[in-house]
Amino acid sequence: MRAIDPAEDSRAFRDALGSFATGVCIVTAPSDDGPVGITASSFASVSLDPPLVLWSPAKDSKRFPYFSTARHYAIHVLDGHQQKLCNAFTRDRHAFDACEWQEDANGVPQISDCLARFDCRQEAAHDAGDHLIIVGRVLSAAFRPGLPLLFQGGRFVSLKG
């Protein structure tokens, strides 16, 4: 194991963070430019009562303005077979032609066939360096059995069921 100073070597710090496997999500929201989505791995549960989750978009992302101000949004946990969908939203905020989806009553795009979906209303936002921590109150959720798409060490990894 190699010790690093994260303030001095941001690449090594990023590599160390990459040691932790994370699930992959797509966050979607309505906008004046139409429905938008972004791939994210910074998703976590916060509270059961009240039901809260969080995610953290990067401030330097071109999509940041859409999500930092979105009142309503949905977080979709991707299934292990949805790597192409993940890649589509990594490249294009309007990649909805890569999937089946519908809008909810708040105009939020809901992607079909994910492992789980959390329909949220922004509860709070906290400045956190080069990211914004967005806390959402979960208004409804849906899920199904399956194995998640995971990302670790700069690559997609899978679980064997």
What's this model, at a glance?
With 161 residues, the chain is mainly beta. The chain is 14% helix and 40% strand.
Any overview of this molecule?
With 161 residues, this protein is mainly beta. 14% of the residues lie in helices and 40% in strands. The protein contains three helices and twelve strands; from the N terminus they run αβββββαβαββββββ. The strands form three sheets. A seven-stranded antiparallel β-sheet has the order 3-2-6-9-10-5-4. A three-stranded antiparallel β-sheet has the order 1-11-12, with no helix packed on it. Strand 7 (101-103) and strand 8 (109-111) form a beta hairpin. The protein is globular and about 50 Å long.
Key words describing this protein structure:
mainly beta; seven-stranded antiparallel beta sheet; 12 strands; 161 residues; three-stranded antiparallel beta sheet
SSE diagram, text form:
Elements: H1 10-17, E1 22-23, E2 25-29, E3 36-40, E4 43-47, E5 52-55, H2 64-68, E6 72-77, H3 83-91, E7 101-103, E8 109-111, E9 116-128, E10 131-143, E11 150-152, E12 155-157
Antiparallel strand pairs: 1-11, 2-3, 2-6, 4-5, 5-10, 6-9, 7-8, 9-10, 11-12
